[in-house]
Amino acid sequence: MAAGGKFLFRLFVLVVLCLSGGSVFSFYSLLYEQSDVAESTVFLVEKGESLNRIAERLKQDNLLSSKALFKIAARLSGKSTQLKAGEYRIPARASAKEILDILVSGQTVVRRVTVPEGKTSKQIFDLLLQTPGLFGDLPEPPPNGTLLPETYVFSYGLPRTVILERMRSGMNKTIEELWPLRDPDLPYTTKEEALILASIVEKETSLPEERPRIAGVFVNRLRKGMRLQTDPTVIYAITNGSMELNRRLTHKDLRTDHPFNTYVNKGLPPAPICNPGRESIQAVLQPQKTNEIYFVADGTGGHVFSRTFDEHKRNIANWKRTRRRKQLAARKAKAAAVKKAKASTTKKAKPAASKTSKAASKPAVKKKATAAASKPAEKQNPNQKAASSADKSVKPSVQQKAASSGEKK
Length: 409
Description:
single chain; mainly alpha; two-stranded antiparallel ribbon; 14 helices
C-alpha cells in the first residue's frame, strides 16, 4: 500500500471509531489489555498464512479478545505483511500489542535434537526422521565417520537435510582442526585411519576420562603388530553394520570371517564402525602414553588395564566374579519382589477369607455349647486336666521346630 493509501486507511479507521461511539483512547486500552490465559502458549504461524486466518486462530485459542482489533492494529502499524512464519512462545496474559510484536520479531521457539556419540549413520537418520518439528526426506545414509554427534538447534519447519549438512560440516571442521595437533609418532598416517580408530574407542567406553587411555592401548597393539581384538568390530561384523546386538558375544562370534573382525584380522578395519565424537577423535590423535596392552571391564562401567597377559587373566577372573555377584543379587532382588507381591496379595485376600471362616464357625460353636449344656456334668480327674493343658502348650512349639528345620534344609 502506498504512503497516501496508508494515511487514508488510518484516517478512515479513526473516523469509524469516533462515529461508532468509540475513541482512540478506548482502542489503545483494548490493544494493551492483558488476556486471561494464565500460562505461556506455543503458537504456530504457517508459511503463507493470512492475517485474517492468524487472527482467527489467536481468537480460538483465547489469546485475543477481538480479532478485528488485532487486524486493525496490524494494519495501522504497517505490520500486517510482516508477520513471519514459525513457532512462537506467547507469554501468559500477553496483550494483543505484545502478540503482534512477537509474531513480527521472527524470534521463534528454539528446538533441539541431540545426536549421541557412537551411533551409525543409519541410526542417526532414524533419529532425525522421528524428531518433531523437522520436515522433508533424507537421502541414503552417508558412510560412518562423516557425521558429527552434537546437539543441534533449529526452528519448527526446518528441512532435515539442513541438519544433515550441519553434521557433515561439523565433522569436517573438527578433523581439520584437530589433525595438525596430533602426536608425531602415531602408527596411522591419514585422517580416515584416525576416524576408524576413534569410532572403535567411542564404542569401547562411555567414560570421557578413559578414552585417551584406551586409545593408548590400541596404539601400543598396532605398534607391536598385535590384533586389536575389540568386541565392537565383531558386533559390526555379525550385525551387518547395524551395531544392534541384544545378546552377549560368543566364542563362535569371535571367529567370524569378516573384514571388520579385529579378532581374526590385524590392523584397523576398512572403515569407521560408527560416528565418533570430538573427544574420541582427540583421544586417538593424542593418546595416553603407557605400556598397557590389555583392558577388561571392571563391572562398574569402567575398565581395568594391564601390561602383561597374566595380569589380564587375573582381571578377567575378577570381572567374572563381579558379574556373578551382580547376577546373584539381581536374582535375589527379583525373588524378594515376587515374594513381597505374593504376600501383599495374600494379605488383601485374608480378611475376607477370615471373615467367612469366622462366620462359618459361629453356628458350630453354638451347637457345641448347646450339646455340652444338655449333657450332665462329669467329674474330671485333676491330673488329666493338667495333662490336657500341657498337650496344648507343647504342640505349637513342636510345629515351630519342624518349620524351622524345613527352612534350614
